[in-house]
Amino acid sequence: MKKNIIAASLAASALHASAAEFRLPEFDTITLQNGLTVYLMERHEVPLISVRAVVKAGAVNDGKQPGLSNLTGDALLLGSKAHDKAAIDNAFDYRGARLAGGAGAEASTVQANFARADAPALLPLFAEILLQPSFDDAELSKLRERKVSGLKQAKEAPSNVVQNYYRAMLFGDSPYAIPASGTVSSVSALKQGDVQRYYQQYYRPDNAAIVVVGDFQKSEMRKQIESLFGAWQAKGPAPAAQDNGKIKADKARVLLVNKADAIETTYLIGGAGIARNDPDYVPLHVLNTVLGGRFTSWLNDELRVNSGLTYGAFSGFSPLSQTGTFAISSFTASDKTAAALALTHKTYQRLWDQGIDKATLESAKAYVKGQFPPKYETSEQLAGLLGEMYANKVDRAQIDNFSKDVDSLTPERAKALINKHFPRKQLQTVLIGKAADIRDIAKTYGEVTELEITADGFQ
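== Insulinase family protein ==
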């Protein structure tokens, strides 16, 4: 059965990818009386259903308790008031279904994927997990300890944490600087009461969406969703809108994180980026493909293929709902740090010194048109996209105009977008490595602040 489903899914994916123009499939948007947003998208290619709950609450809402949203999101899967964790795990595992949860910077999710035939059993259980979590103290304690252990190990590999240092450096004391995973000290201090309070404050119908994509009839699914979630009621005032922070790059700065036993230097270079709903999101994806978004990019060619300074170099925009970041990322042997950084800056400067010619642009456009649609073929991928659109206020026009935005990109337009969005001056740099070996190099790229990697947190 599973082999047939996979084969059918692959066939449907191939057919979808071959389409000349990518457009988001039709879906219904419904708002229930309690304020809950519901997205329903029918897809009958395979007998599968993907359901996702998205709550607009993440690390930006953690305040002085970094990691609270992440712990809460994962704790939803520890059992409900009617079923313990073992019963829930067995119910999904027995049917070959998948259940997952978690939280990021601005949103928390619970998602499940199962066969259409299992919907009568698993959809009510999914609702139960979201609406009636038990937050069992014993299970929560074990989860917290696993997270603390993971945090202690994470800094052994700088690539695991360099983005946390980068965000903390760029956003300072604002909510966007809060690491979603928290810190060893902050997560160690979290208690059951903290999780319960966070849940009561942010997990409410007027701050959430339910996304269902797959093999069902909309009219029937709407009735099921209303039956399962219609009685969900918010308590107290809705969470107030907040400013999550803006990047201040009034001067070039370097955060030098000392890892005394390092034999490599891991680095990020960049600055402010764009919000997820920025109208230039798609064309910027094309332009970044040239710079550092694929194996044949300028950065990878220069730093890996031509010079052998690294095993890989990349760049990219990391959008958030209100703003975003841009960064070039790579790593190199400690004694190659000066050469790698110099070549990175030189290659990045090509965006302004020579621009992107028509042939290079056409190659990137073809690549993106081939890579973008396959990201949104399966029901699970589409449910993720609709959830992302909800959390970041992205209109479907951005998706539907994908092909148009790619095709209309010219060298002249590319130049204007580069000047508008790619940070050029007062670049911000994070270096993680042996400070004694790279301290003097760091000084050439801005005002240096040093931090020990063994210190708790990221700033």
